[in-house]
């Protein structure tokens, strides 16, 4: 194979031979595939859609299709849109808490309308993103990412034990040895492959672990392919499948997370150029990445897809291989689009038993939390910053754990207050701006 450290391979506009580019493109897809479809499964469950049903399959298809399309916005670009860097886009975990709450209480129509408007605002941030970065230093972004992971971990445990809703947790089989055996298979296989293999297998460790666990679940009689046989071969795409339902609170909630997502994308763009080319990202690249982020979210929401963002794990692939070619990631995007157009693939994913998904997201959500901790290692842990961390996490996670504490708040404001992420972000931003720096 071509030397991965040559100057040519560090050029975003370089086009490697197909024999090199196709495996590298697949590697990018494998590294993010499980993380990309999981948010749609969780939000679909919160909205009350039948597990494995046609509507859930549709949301999974849109996750794959528009992850590919949004990635093309980044790698190919149109005018100022797109960083034209090897940045892989995918469905964002950052929005899961807010969207699950909105979908459960207000419906998917309200949730996706908020995503559309939030995506448009996110797009507009591309012109001012450089001027907003001061609001989101590592202290704030680290706290937000940590809160996302900590909020989602209980969801992972519920799935691993065999259920996701209160009535499922009361079932006799909830927490059974069979469920935990399937879930822990994902964890054990993923850890083994991650630390004792290299390259593509190591990067796809979670996905491979879920496949092995899926096979075990099938052998234990936990898998039914009835709905796979009935799934269409080609996706029928629908415009605003759940209607247009405006709710100001939902829009504010999604927009707040969109700002955080935009800052995360700025970080990923900067990390990509550092890892692949040893330089800082230009203002044009950062603005283009933000434009693509917002456009991808807005377009996806029109057809029933959830918000997308840049995927940090794919930055690691760029650093590991030294391949900076955006065309490699473009090939990965094409694979995702093909998957998104084939409902049979979505039906197979939707037939996955909850414990298989649970085992995968235990690792994924734990990694989200640890990523937040990693960002916080850049922060000087003086008394001022520790107070900000303490109050922000206490408010965000505390209200999430005791939602009746704000039971008299109206509608989506209650959802926002109990989402863990939004209160943590708001507290962290405000306290970081208000508290004087000289507290030691």
Automatic annotation (TrEMBL):
Keyword Cell membrane: yes
Membrane topology: Multi-pass membrane protein
Transmembrane feature ranges: 29-51, 58-81, 93-123, 135-157, 177-197, 204-224, 244-263, 328-350, 356-376, 388-409, 415-435
PANTHER family registered for this protein in UniProt: PURINE PERMEASE C1399.01C-RELATED (PTHR42810)
Entries under InterPro entries matching the protein: NCS2, UacT-like, Xan_ur_permease
Record keywords, A-Z: Cell membrane, Membrane, Transmembrane, Transmembrane helix, Transport
Domain of life: Bacteria
Subcellular localization(s) per the UniProt record: Cell membrane
Protein name: Purine permease
